Amino acid sequence: MRFKITLVPISKNPIIPINYQYPLSAVIYKVLSGADEKYASFLHEKGYQVGDGLKRFKFFTFSDLRAKFKLRDKDRMHLHSNPELIVSFYLPEAAKHFIKGIFLNREIAIADGTSKALFLVEQVEALLPLNIPNGSIDSLHFDVLSMVVCGRKNDDGNYVFLSPEDPNWKPMVLYNWKEKCRAASLDFSETEWAIMDIETLLDKKKPASRLIVIKAGTKAQTRIKGYRDFGIRATGPSAALELLYNAGCGAYTSLGCGFLGIKENWEINHDNT
Question: For the CA atoms of 45, 47, 52, 53, what is the dihedral angle to 10 degrees?
């Protein structure tokens, strides 16, 4: 399920870090913990996992912020309009009213060690789910709206981030998608597992790369690189496609990476229930 959220600045001259993904992810955790401490603790400390494996997934993601801004000091965004974003959860549809209620009229802060801006959640619009029949096999064209992160360690043990043009990108992203399905306990037949596929849709323009910094200015600072401005065609069971759409594609999805969209979804696919 997805929600379009409109923020109104409380702070005068709101300035946020250009690497706002980690602070914004922390805000979502905080809102969830205020409403359901057990669920938020589960996401933060454990997440969904496959068997006894070490890999864990947090089944939510969010879009890039949409706002008019001016860049200051190379790493600050001085906002000149009310920012909007879409927050996406892989949760039962019955939880829609609960999630909408815990965000509406909340005061939130987007901050790091240098700057802090306060906002009021003025509006929360529930977006319509994917319109695909339950139990069907479908092939859908998604637009990549926030960078998809895919990487692997090289022979020296260093992490290498892959472009969707790399031949290793597809099998790694497909494997990640299937692992998320297993973590969510989705039960598919051998034929359904075998038919799952992800195809990159590239035009003449190369996918745009982006580098973001997580926990900037701390000992735990990490840089991650991803790619956006391309499309993917995903084929699989309807439940797997819904997970991909709502939980995100690739790695670091709980930091706002791998957010996918259907054409014109942002503008027209919403309701007010």
Answer: -100
pLDDT in tens, 97-127: 878 888 999 999 999 988 999 999 999 999 9
Predicted local confidence at residue 94, as pLDDT: 67
Angle at 6 between CA 10 and CA 15, to 5 degrees: 45
Task: Identify the three-state secondary structure at position 180.
Answer: helix
The alpha carbons of the chain give a radius of gyration, in whole angstroms, of 18
Higher per-residue confidence, 100 vs 82: 82
| Tokens 């064209």 found at | 141
15 pLDDT higher than 60? yes
Q: Map out the domains of the chain with their CATH numbers.
A: 2-127 (3.30.70.1890), 137-271 (3.30.70.1900)
**Polymer length in residues for the chain:** 273
Query: Does an H or E element contain 27, and which?
Result: helix 21-35
Rounded to whole angstroms, how far apart are CA atoms 185 and 176? 14
> Helix, strand, coil: what percent of the chain each, to 5?
25, 35, 35
Round to whole Å and give the CA distance between 115 and 131: 41
65 neighbors 83 (Cβ within 8 angstroms): yes
Q: Are 259 and 229 in contact (CB under 8 A)?
A: no
Q: How far apart are CA 250 and CA 186, in angstroms?
A: 18
Query: Rounded to an integer, what distance in angstroms lies between the CA atom of residue 96 and that of residue 46?
Result: 23
Distance CA 146, CA 220 (A): 23
**Rounded CA gap, 65 and 183, in Å?**
29
**Close Cβ partners of 4 (under 8 Å, ≥ 6 residues apart):** 84, 85, 86, 123, 124, 125, 127, 266, 270
Q: Which residues pair with 264 in a beta bridge?
A: none
CA 272 – CA 125 distance, rounded (Å): 6
